[in-house]
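Sanity check. The docking grid for flavin-adenine dinucleotide depends on where the pocket ends up, so I'm generating a full predicted complex first rather than guessing from homology. Inputs follow.
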Amino acid sequence: MDFLRPGGWEEALAVKAERPGALPIAGGTDVMVEINHGGRRPEALLDLSGIAELHALEHEPAGAGDAPAGRVRLGAAVPYTRVIGELGADLPGLALAARTVGSPQIRNRGSVGGNLGAASPAGDCHPALLASGAEVEAVSVRGTRHVPIDDFYLGVKRNALAPDELIRSVRVPRATGPQQFSKVGPRNAMVIAVCAVAVALHPERGTVRTGIGSAAPTPVRAREAEEYIAGVLADGDLWERRDPIPPAAAGRFAELVADACSPIDDVRGTAAYRRHAVAVMARRTLRWCWDAHRSGASDPRPEGGAPCA
Ligand SMILES: Cc1cc2nc3c(=O)[nH]c(=O)nc-3n(C[C@H](O)[C@H](O)[C@H](O)COP(=O)(O)OP(=O)(O)OC[C@H]3O[C@@H](n4cnc5c(N)ncnc54)[C@H](O)[C@@H]3O)c2cc1C
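Predicted complex below; grid placement will be based on this.
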């Protein structure tokens, strides 16, 4: 197996064009597990870990990409530790999700770009990126594509990257309202999600976005639930009045989120349990977000911020 170590971004793109079979490696927390367990034997590894552009965090101004509060351009190899330490205020949903990934060692190496590259339905970034309305910057020697996150996941561990493309960054709109993430697993750390839910309020648009992980072949949004709850909030003038969401409406929202799932039975959980847990997490994350919107508090969860449901 060749080990290719480009000196910079342009060289990395040229190598990927020349050798599309070369497997990118950033933190290596997915790639090395697959290689060590014999699940993968790529002809070459393309080491992206030393490329400065992929470690950059940039703040784009308000209005960029139709984002009223601006966006964060998160280099593909930025590790979770930095997302947690530096982006908790700008991207609270993603930072909450990052807190639940693996262990400190994994969070020091693992990256959002690697999560996107792996495109596992259980990847923890995906629900938060869907709820935020992120965009993936996919680059090749042919040019740059900005792929909306809704179009990025194509199937189980399949994404929209062409064989010669690399992820340069993910652009995530800065939060304009409360965001939450909840994940179910047998314990609070070092655990792959049995299922996960993210909710983000977008008060300036009067919309609510969702993301569901590990409960369908790809991460998915619950669009019917989003439309339903946006209608409830608009009809009751609740964004302005900041009254509680009626329990029946929160319950219906939870049901519709569960309806958006198409889970399977596997070693981590049954389909029925996943549907149930997704509904519970949908109701909770919506309540946490709405309580924060009403009170202006950043994290009103009764658990005091524990990331798991
Ligand atoms: C013990 C352990 C616990 C874990 N716990 C969790 C968890 O709780 N939640 C979770 O979501 N994940 C978890 N993971 C999986 C892994 O840590 C994450 O998916 C992480 O985000 C991968 O990032 P990485 O930089 O290490 O990716 P890598 O392993 O380097 O790459 C992963 C994939 O992305 C591709 N890739 C990487 N960078 C690019 C790029 N710039 N352009 C195109 N393709 C690219 C690679 O080719 C590969 O297919 C865990 C892994 C381990 C070993």
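Relevant for the grid: The radius of gyration is 19 Å.
Also worth noting: Residues 23-31, 33, 48, 76, 100-102, 106, 109-111, 113-115, 117-118, 123-124, 161, 166-167, 190, 192 surround flavin-adenine dinucleotide (CB under 6 Å).
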